[in-house]
Amino acid sequence: MTTLAVLENLTAKLPLGVCVLNEQLEIEYWNDFFADRLNISCDQVKGQNLLTLFPNEAKYLKKKINSVFVLNNASFSYWEHRPHVFLFSSSRPITGEETLMYQNIEFIPLHVSNNVVKTVCMIVQDVTELASYYQGKKQLSEELAQEHSALLALNTKLEAAQNQLLQADKMAAIGQLAAGVAHEINNPIGFIHSNLQSLQDYSTKLLNLISFYEKVVNKTQNKTFMALQQEMQDRSQYSFLREDMPELINESITGIDRVTDIIKNLKVFSHVDSSEWQHANIIEGIENTLKIANSQLKYNVEVHREFQQPLPALFCQPMQLNQVFLNLIVNSAQAIDGKGHIYIKVSASSTALVIEIKDTGCGISESAQRKIFEPFYTTKPVGQGTGLGLSLSYSIVQKHKGSIVVSSELDVGTTFIITLPLLTPGDLETPS
Amino acid sequence: MIYQLSELQRDALQELMNISMGQAANSLARLIGAKITLSIPLISSVTPTEFVDMISSDVMWHTRQSFLGTVKGEVVSLQSHAGCEAIAELMDYELPLSDITREELLLELSNILAGACLNGFAEQLELTTKLSMPTVFEPEKLSPEHYRWAHTLLMEVEFKVESSHFDSKIVICLEAESISTLLSRLNSLLE
């Protein structure tokens, strides 16, 4: 075989497209790669203009090939940027998902004389396999990245939930502790209270007795006795003692009454017997709750009450409802920065009680409003809110077959409206 | 192996570089029709760590392109983020650039500059070498500990397109064996 024959055989079998172009971009040669795909033999195509043959990509091809002629420097086209310069069908028509061949193309100065490029050779490489592999991998890594970020988000959520659970646990433990302490304190408080009352009684009697003796001594007109009495009274500062003692005892009794009150409220809220259904006066519950919440309210919040009278007694779990009122009132107080107002309105229809708690606080954003009844949702700093208050309230109201709705405007305030139907014991299929 | 270039060799190499870089600048200027300024070519021998330090930059895009022939090595190009769009406009790309068209532009630019630099340089020293396709390169992923070479000879030059604040650096890195080939050619030229 001659070298030419070898070369002809070679270019015919080459898995590459080879096309030679002159300065007018007329095709001087192309190999079987082109000829077979386009059904135009090398002899037929000779002298035809490349750009008229491939009008769709004419602009791009012209630019690329011209730069080779001008600069005497090879130029490249990548499948990533221009996947299908020549619209050849896929090299995998049966098993492949691709319909068009992905191509890398090299444009090289072929015949150069005196630094002037006379012909340019275009070499087309079929990289469909590579491209589909690469694209598959890229898609996979995108999916992985997506899953990864989803997992990360889930992790953070779990972590937050765990923190909240811990917090809820802590709160429950504190509640139990408070209940225990309240119970323990109750007894000593009881006898201190009754002792103080006896003491008050005794001291009154003692003072009366002394007054009587005073009068008796004075009656005698005996200078010596009277002087002695005066001296003794001066020495023990009797006139001051007589004034101060009843006051001291009164103050102590008031103090111990307050302690008793607090203990009572603590017991009320420590879930002891809290699920008992009974007929109760809602107003009483609200007042009790306000006392409990007092420490949160007294400095900057003014509470306005508007209670319709008389109200029918409501068949309910009073302690649980108090819990709802407490959550709402405390939330309102916390939403108020500086001075503010809380309006509590209770009204009744023939079928239901409506309790409206309105504040002039910071309000709740619309996106947050959709979530506030979700368990563990909180906007308070870690450690301050459990995210359970409103979800608990929601479930309590549901147990009462009632509804709780919120309306809020940022920087204006929030209103919660609780509607509780007037139930009878028979309405509850499974009273808990 | 450390290649200690003599003063004479360095000067000669610098002059050769100057000429070939001039041709490269001329090519680019012809293609985009804008004025191009050139820095004085820098010739240095660097260790892997110095190499990584030198080409690491987060305000530049990077490409690499290998060449084969009587001398072998790689051309690394650094192209500034700034001025990219202006160059794209000069080169008749559709604006705004997408990630794909930007990559295409960078590869085309680096191919033109690297080709012109290397061809001019090889021609004068009567070396034959052929560049392969350039690819995008992320030097953040480099770790100098993994390099199998201790020193390489770098020839670098900076091109600036004044009208558009575009800045590009071409670094020709020679493989160890090719350095001796280069030096012997240089010596015969100097005799």
UniProtKB/TrEMBL annotation, chain B:
<dbReference type="Pfam" id="PF04509">
    <property type="entry name" value="CheC"/>
</dbReference>
<feature type="domain" description="CheC-like protein">
    <location>
        <begin position="9"/>
        <end position="39"/>
    </location>
</feature>
<dbReference type="InterPro" id="IPR051469">
    <property type="entry name" value="FliN/MopA/SpaO"/>
</dbReference>
<dbReference type="InterPro" id="IPR007597">
    <property type="entry name" value="CheC"/>
</dbReference>
<keyword id="KW-0145">Chemotaxis</keyword>
<protein>
    <submittedName>
        <fullName>Chemotaxis protein CheC</fullName>
    </submittedName>
</protein>
<dbReference type="InterPro" id="IPR028976">
    <property type="entry name" value="CheC-like_sf"/>
</dbReference>
